[in-house]
Design goal:
Two copies of one chain form a homodimer. The first copy, chain A, has twelve helices and 18 strands. Chain A has helices at residues 40-48, 55-70, 76-87, 94-107, 112-152, 178-185, 202-214, 226-231, 257-267, 287-290, 299-302, 352-358; strands spanning 2-3, 6-7, 11-13, 20-23, 34-37, 157-161, 190-195, 218-221, 237-240, 244-246, 251-254, 271-274, 280-281, 303-307, 313-317, 330-333, 340-343, 346-348. In chain A, helix 2 packs antiparallel against helix 5 and helix 5 packs across helix 6 (178-185). The longest helix of chain A is centred in the middle third of the chain and has 41 residues, at 112-152.
Chain lengths: 361, 361
């Protein structure tokens, strides 16, 4: 999508033809900075420190990270070491494993001297496919928004989202926000309630930033506010992304998603997760019991970085010194609370039957 | 309770015998500063800017604020003007109105020249009564914790709380935290999950601070995390305060309380609100429909104050410049989601019948 009127993807090959250019999302919304990754280790660090984040983008970054790792050494051992390093960076996102599996399938049958070129080709395909996938997700989600807009006769359709499943989370378009962008571009008056999404504030830092750049009306709210808005008819639809979806339709997504799903359920507000098929983990049924939840640095809870009065980024302490904190990155919303799921193949019930109908065999 | 080993109340008469000393809660947790209120306007500003906050403390501060207003002029007109000014400072807390009504009942029948002394006497009573009330609330709440501790055989009892309904929110002891302090002092191993409570972070700034000062084990979490903890059996009991409770047991409390109540209900975790009888608004039945919800400055969502690296308080921007935000201060948890209510008269079902049994006539 556009930044200052110029089209960008979140990740792309640098003009040098081998290094990888990403948007440093840690510096948004206050600075728009591109960084160049030149080694496997730099790619792993970019994923681990969330310079790139969002399930599909993590997958794309891992694919390119492996390319960088194969430049000095394309042996089986280097493939394995590289994959292992990348896999450890973020334990929850299934796309990471998926992308590395795809790379392995494409490369391991080849002799080492042919792997590097094939790796770059496959990584580029993963990126292009993600863009097309997200565009399709947007089209299917748009079918939810259109009848709401008709029913509201020109009044704005209010969509609540949590965290960032916008174009910054994918290679382009985004997942939860793809339908929003399509609706907005089609002239449907949409307005987005943006959960700030503590502790890392991806809503304030990323979702508000990208909606602003695209001109979509939006309002930032504390994570605590969504239930109140739903009780008072201020939310027509909830759209979130997913970091991992089980074969039964349980949705693992940014911590706090479950709370919003409960509120939507309690108030009859439709609640959908939008994600590509690569997010589905067919090996897992019960999300709450089976998905390991990443614990991140407690400092993300006790401290917060933002723009100081002098225009420089600064970190402040929010709690008494040495306050003990924990920081779970994700939670699981049971399928029973999901109105449905939006994938590139269409809308589907959040159930084993629903998913199997769309993805037979 | 104790601060640096010395006993404090949150509000008290200054040694000069007429001005009013409060803890400036805006500067916690990084600085412990007492300020002296000398006029009605200073008291109103202290309430409006949340130097004092918490339903019972707001009532006590309003009572003393009226005393200060009567010093230059104790006429009926001054009583009315003073009450009106104080009443406007925080529209949601019913204790504000209650305390001012109490002052009116005590003072209006008296000739103006006798009002000032009576006002100080009544304000002191309101404070002393609050302390005694909270101690009783603590005793009744303790009865919930004791059997849990027995059942857990020495394992810690995990209590989740939202915002600050601790001693800083009352004159002393607190409401939701009064049972926690009593349990801790009785040697029961309690541990508190402290919701940070965006946007003003009263959990991080106040609850963590007061628990630390009293030595109660606690862990700070993002507001988004409570649902995940409850899904995984990490919460034995939720205790929150209340800013207004309807005659039917709906509980208006800090924004986000409703989301935690939904999660508790979904996971079979007992969820109680603790508050004094003065918090009950007998004129109102349906909390969601009838309680006006205060909207505060949107800047509380887009900006955040904390301790900078140089040890000074500093405000940072969290969102892109000019981001539109809204900031609802409270939400309403319907009685159906409350396991029960804890008042100074005992534990009671959150229902019209339950409340009427405790407070007949």
């Amino acid at each position: 999508m556009n930044v200052n009127g110029q089209a960008y993807r979140t990740i792309r090959l640098h003009a040098d033809g081998w290094s990888v250019e990403i948007i440093d999302q840690r510096r948004l919304p206050h600075e728009f900075v591109l960084i160049r990754l030149t080694t496997l280790e730099e790619a792993a660090e970019a994923i681990g420190t969330m310079a790139v984040r969002g399930a599909p983008l993590i997958g794309a970054a891992a694919a390119y990270g492996l390319c960088l790792g194969l430049r000095p050494d394309a042996s089986d051992k280097a493939m394995r070491t590289g994959s292992d390093l990348l896999l450890k960076t973020r334990p929850t996102a299934v796309n990471l494993r998926w992308a590395l599996d795809e790379m392995g399938k494409a490369l391991l049958p080849l002799p080492p001297e042919k792997r590097l070129e094939a790796a770059y080709r496959r990584a580029a395909e993963i990126c292009d496919n993600d863009v097309e996938t997200n565009r399709r997700i947007g089209g299917h989600g748009l079918k939810l928004i259109e009848p709401m807009a008709k029913k509201k006769k020109g009044e704005r359709v209010n969509i609540l989202t949590h965290c960032n499943a916008g174009w910054l989370a994918g290679v382009d378009w985004g997942m939860a926000l793809a339908p929003v962008y399509l609706a907005h571009d089609a002239g449907i008056p949409v307005h987005v309630w943006v959960d700030e999404t503590r502790p890392r504030n991806q809503g304030a830092a990323l979702t508000a930033w990208e909606l602003k750049n695209h001109g979509v009306p939006h309002t930032l709210i504390a994570d605590n506010a969504g239930g109140h808005l739903m009780q008072h008819g201020q939310v027509d639809l909830c759209l979130v992304g997913a970091d991992r979806v089980t074969a039964c339709g349980d949705v693992c997504n940014k911590i706090g998603t479950y709370l919003k799903a409960l509120a939507a359920h309690d108030n009859g507000v439709p609640f959908y997760a939008a994600f590509p098929a690569s997010t589905i983990d067919w090996r897992i049924a019960d999300g709450v019991a089976e998905i390991p939840i990443e614990q991140r640095d407690a400092r993300e809870v006790t401290h917060l970085r933002g723009l100081g009065p002098d225009g420089h980024s600064i970190e402040i302490a929010l709690a008494p010194a040495d306050t003990h904190a924990v920081n779970y990155g994700f939670d699981v919303t049971p399928a029973r609370l999901m109105t449905g799921l939006i994938t590139e193949r269409g809308l589907v019930q959040a159930s084993a039957e629903g998913l199997r109908k769309l993805f037979p065999g």
